[in-house]
């Protein structure tokens, strides 16, 4: 985000609040991660839950991504419909009666991989799809303590998957504990260790773990090539306030912001802009104060966020006036994009495009 | 939510995660607030930003609501299209070039009131619409410290509005500081005092403040009739975990929950259900720990919430199993509904209806 972006924000006639993407910065972010992955001989399979947007996923594939990662069956269906044919649902998909037939149909349309982290889940997946039609990766926990079994238990899950007629191709983990100041490098080491231990466990049980998949935006550039064969970062295409605070990027690397209008200035202490939590989302980890960054205002931030009001304090009256249009960088861009039906994308020459957030709302 | 709801949750074949509404509880909540308002001779103008759903707004009007409150011009357009003709945008609407013509068009289709809290905002509204076509209420701050001028400054805004050709009909405030344990009654007193002071200020300047509008769900039943002529609560139709913790209601009064599936149980310590922050929203005030309530599990809650994973701790293994379907009450229901395209509504006889969240995404 540079001076040109600032000027454009002020001059855009788009109705506020709206989410705006700066295409040159977006493309630079995409190229940087793709270049790093290539240089380190790691496959890049970006997580498209961040943007849910076909136009951006296409740019990632053109830049060298080997496939895409998605979070839900509904997202996978949306991207399959848009022509994507190599999909990894990096989630312990539970193929109950509500999803089994959709999963089977999707397997016939695309090369599909899904996550699995239980014997029971593996058995259900096996019953849902034709033998050999579905690839699975066993999810292991590397320190985030969410889903994923301990690496030592990965073999039992792989055994169950193979028995159920699924093709076991490897292991994956999400180093989500990279999302805290100073944790990124250690999280990447934890990731590599967990993937290595799980791989050994699988190989001892006769499975070939050719895919060892990890990655998050904060930890990606710390990934241990050789041990990790595939990365699945998502946020890096846009970046956000979390990434700036984590020092994964600078404010200049942020390619998406909310365009907002100052609608109220009731006293000298505060201004209200119209990008509330229904635009920015209310995500705020314990290590982060406030709800959004206003880059043009010396880093002033949002101190109070409700559904349609974002309160900015600490800005003197002459700097901000009623009716001014400002840019607001959300704390967590995935959640902000998930609230929008479309993104307004600005090309380098100032041309505007509208990109539908096509997989928004595909939560199941 | 009773035993019947528990049974239904387990037996529903709806794909998870999904938002489910129990219609009998919804109707009971609507009737209770309508009855209280009627008994206290206060007009009820519910805030439909909570549900954004035509079917629910119709039930509120049938139960006696005098009109509806909305937050954005886009929401107002959606409800006007659905036949609602008495709309109050309780927000300091900034009628810039992006909104002026839409505002003018809406004024011709419905009786429209909007909020105003600045001289500049009043002038812009006046330029956008035909003289006498738009009613305004001056917003005052009663302690939430968001938008709204101090009551003593309300007259200056009213003067500007009248000068701009707008019909000044009263004052409004949002007692949002009712959203903290033990604050509701005091917030209602603050509301009444601010509205009274602002009314006096307007009357001294020759304006008739016939509408004195306040209300939030926590403070509504503490409202001071006589001083307050109109209430705008929203959440009460569904209730949520915040309201249960604030003791505005009990868990039995909650009419909406996320239906979720246990998708991962990687160790004895934790279970993962599929209602992440893209379903529940990440809203969490400082006075509330965790991200959602599982009523069937002795009040166990979500301790860790990411986009597609909700981690439940403190439940023993026999109680919850992989594949179980559970109900999760979100912290803040307005934000959860804002993430869904539709609600699955269960009638008293078990019949299912699908209600579109028609105004979802109408943020501008």
What does this protein look like?
The structure is a homodimer of 364-residue chains. By secondary structure, chain A is an alpha/beta fold. Chain A is built from 11 helices and 17 strands. Chain A has helices at 3-11, 23-39, 54-62, 73-81, 100-109, 119-128, 154-163, 184-204, 241-245, 277-280, 333-337, and strands at residues 18-22, 43-44, 68-70, 86-92, 111-116, 135-139, 167-172, 211-214, 230-231, 256-267, 270-273, 292-294, 300-305, 310-313, 325-330, 342-346, 352-356. In chain A, the strands form 2 sheets. An 8-stranded parallel sheet of chain A has the order 2-9-8-7-6-5-4-3. In chain A, helix 4 (73-81) runs parallel beside helix 5 (100-109) and helix 6 (119-128) runs parallel beside helix 7 (154-163). The relative contact order of chain A is 0.16. The mean pLDDT of chain A is 95. At the A-B interface, helix 6, strand 10 and helix 10 of A face helix 6, strand 10 and helix 10 of B.
Summary, kept brief:
The structure is a homodimer of 364-residue chains. By secondary structure, the first copy, chain A, is an alpha/beta fold.
What is the percent of helical residues of chain A? 25-40%
Total beta strands of chain A? 17
Residue fraction in strands of chain A: 15-25%
Number of distinct helices of chain A = 11
Strand order of the largest sheet of chain A: 2-9-8-7-6-5-4-3
**Rg estimate of chain A, integer Å:** 21 Å
């Amino acid at each position: 985000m540079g001076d040109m972006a600032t000027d454009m924000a002020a001059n855009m006639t788009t109705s506020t609040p709206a989410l705006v993407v700066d295409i040159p910065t977006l493309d630079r972010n995409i190229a940087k991660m793709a270049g790093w992955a290539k240089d380190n001989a790691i496959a890049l399979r970006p997580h498209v839950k961040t943007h849910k947007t076909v136009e951006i996923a296409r740019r990632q594939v053109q830049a060298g991504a080997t496939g895409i990662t998605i979070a839900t069956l509904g997202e996978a269906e949306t991207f399959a419909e848009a022509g994507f044919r190599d999909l990894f649902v990096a989630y312990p998909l539970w193929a109950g009666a509500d999803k089994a037939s959709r999963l089977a149909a999707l397997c016939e349309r695309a090369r599909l991989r899904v996550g699995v982290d239980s014997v029971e889940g593996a058995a259900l997946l096996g019953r849902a799809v034709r033998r050999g039609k579905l690839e699975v990766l066993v999810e292991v926990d590397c320190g985030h303590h969410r889903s994923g079994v301990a690496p030592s238990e990965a073999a039992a899950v792989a055994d169950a998957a193979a028995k159920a007629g699924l093709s076991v191709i490897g292991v994956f983990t999400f180093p989500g504990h990279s999302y805290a100041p100073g944790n990124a490098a250690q999280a990447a080491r934890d990731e590599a260790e967990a993937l290595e231990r799980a791989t050994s466990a699988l190989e001892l049980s006769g499975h070939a773990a050719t895919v060892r998949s990890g990655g998050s935006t904060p930890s990606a550039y710390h990934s241990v090539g050789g041990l990790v064969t595939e990365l699945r970062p998502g946020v890096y295409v846009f970046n956000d306030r979390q990434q700036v605070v984590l020092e994964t990027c600078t404010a200049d690397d942020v390619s998406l912001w909310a365009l907002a209008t100052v609608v109220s200035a009731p006293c000298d202490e505060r201004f209200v802009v119209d990008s509330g939590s229904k635009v920015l989302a209310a995500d705020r980890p314990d290590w982060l104060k406030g709800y959004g960054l206003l880059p043009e205002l010396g880093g002033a931030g949002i101190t109070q966020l409700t559904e349609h009001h974002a309160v900015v304090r600490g800005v003197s009256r002459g700097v901000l006036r009623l009716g001014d249009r400002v840019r607001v960088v959300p704390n967590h861009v995935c959640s902000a994009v998930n609230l929008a039906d479309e993104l307004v994308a600005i090309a380098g020459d100032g041309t505007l495009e509208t990109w539908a957030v096509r997989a928004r709302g595909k939560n199941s």
